[in-house]
Specification:
Elements lengths: L1 H6 L4 H7 L3 H7 L11 H6 L3 H7 L3 H19 L8 E5 L12 E5 L3 E5 L6 H10 L10 E4 L2 E2 L2 H4 L7 E4 L11 H11 L5 H16 L14 H15 L4 E5 L8 H9 L4 E5 L3 H6 L2 E6 L2 E7 L2 H25 L7
Parallel strand pairs: 3-8, 3-9, 6-7, 7-8
Antiparallel strand pairs: 1-2, 1-4, 4-5, 9-10
Helix pairs in contact: 9-10, 10-11, 11-12
Bound molecules: adenosine-5'-diphosphate and magnesium ion.
Length: 333
């Protein structure tokens, strides 16, 4: 319980200052208000049995839930960012143990795609980057930040992790509506322009998902596509994490071109595993994976960029037909 151990000797009101979203934990569980000078540990120790019974958890169980809650929120919000200019992937070994001879640097504002067949090691590479590996994963890769290994003290602290992974499944733990969710996030960053950003996020999310939802929709009622769209917009406008990892956005049910444009407009390093030629060609370069290693790195050529505009037209054509069929229209000549 690393979070709980960190907060247990804080006063409750101090904890609420450091982790503003933890007030939501108190609301959700209907926990009574704490006295001014009570520490978190004293608070939990003195909770009446009747309260625990209502929640249906033991004292220890409740502490564990708070610990997990803080973890989840911090991962989601990637709080407390160091200044990052580059990320470098230093090769390790392939699945068969042969050397991966590469050093690949991606800078702020760049998009790197990871291409390769299923099983070739795309997700593994993203995991190495998320973990800021130091030759301590099966691939033996090292990930450097600004040319240096990231200090262990920061690697393992949820607050200072510079890498946000847009997760494939959203397990929203919060029983709140969209507006409350965004505000909670903005507050935790002490962001002054909450109202304006809330508007931007919801507008972008709706453009991305194509199935409109509004600020009062409960998070738990969002479809997979809507939830993903909300997370993309949220990361674009509020996340301070300079490195964004995305695993196969094409199945997310959102407008992937718009999503990529939105994310890359905000001075971040974007690394995205994909089978989608539209995404692969809109990146600056692509790493091609084979047998668990980066086989080569290809810079998108001018000819490929031309091909991209042709592919985009075809994609729009298909999308139009898809919409028509969905609406129950006939396809006409
Ligand atoms: N360099 C490597 N060394 C050892 N195992 C690897 C390596 N790269 C990938 N793997 C393993 O191979 C499997 C498939 O890789 P994965 O990243 O899931 O492929 P993809 O996402 O491209 O479908 C996973 O179990 C992964 O841990
Ligand atoms: Mg994968």
């Amino acid at each position: 319980m690393k979070n709980y151990n960190k907060i247990k000797s804080m006063k409750v009101h101090e904890m609420l200052n450091v982790y503003p979203y933890s007030s939501e934990f108190f609301n959700i569980n209907g926990l009574p208000q704490a006295g001014e000078e009570v520490s978190v540990h004293e608070y939990f120790s003195s909770l009446p049995y009747s309260v625990l019974q209502d929640i249906g958890a033991s004292r220890d169980e409740l502490k564990k839930r708070l610990d997990l809650f803080i973890d989840t929120m911090q991962n989601m919000f990637s709080i407390g960012m160091p200044d990052i200019k580059t990320v470098t992937i230093v090769g390790g070994t392939a699945k068969d143990g042969t050397v991966e001879n590469i050093s690949l640097t991606v800078g702020i504002g760049e998009v790197l795609c990871i291409a390769g067949n299923t099983g070739s090691g795309k997700s593994r590479l993203l995991a190495d980057i998320e973990w800021l590996a130091q030759a301590d994963t099966p691939t033996k890769r090292k990930i450097l930040v600004n040319g240096r290994p990231f200090p262990d003290s920061m690697r393992f602290s949820a607050e200072n992790k510079p890498v946000a992974q847009l997760s494939q499944n959203m397990n929203f733990v919060l029983d709140v509506c969209v507006k409350e969710f965004i505000e909670l996030h903005a507050q935790s960053l002490i962001d002054k322009k909450t109202a304006e950003k809330t508007k931007n996020i919801i507008q972008s999310a709706n453009e991305l998902s194509g199935e409109p939802f509004d600020l009062s929709s409960p998070l738990t009622s969002l479809s997979g596509g809507q939830a993903r769209a909300l997370m993309v917009a949220d990361i674009a406008f509020l996340s301070r994490s300079p490195v964004i990892l995305i695993d196969e956005i094409e199945n997310a049910g959102i407008d992937r071109k718009k999503a990529l444009r939105l994310l890359s407009s905000n001075k971040k390093i974007i690394i995205i595993a994909t089978h989608d030629p539209l995404i692969a060609l809109s990146a600056d370069k692509r790493a091609v994976m084979k047998n668990g290693r980066i086989e080569k790195v290809i810079k998108t050529t001018p000819f490929e960029k031309q091909t991209l505009s042709r592919l985009t037209e075809i994609d729009e054509f298909i999308e139009k037909k898809r919409k028509a069929l969905r609406n129950g229209d006939f396809l006409r000549e």
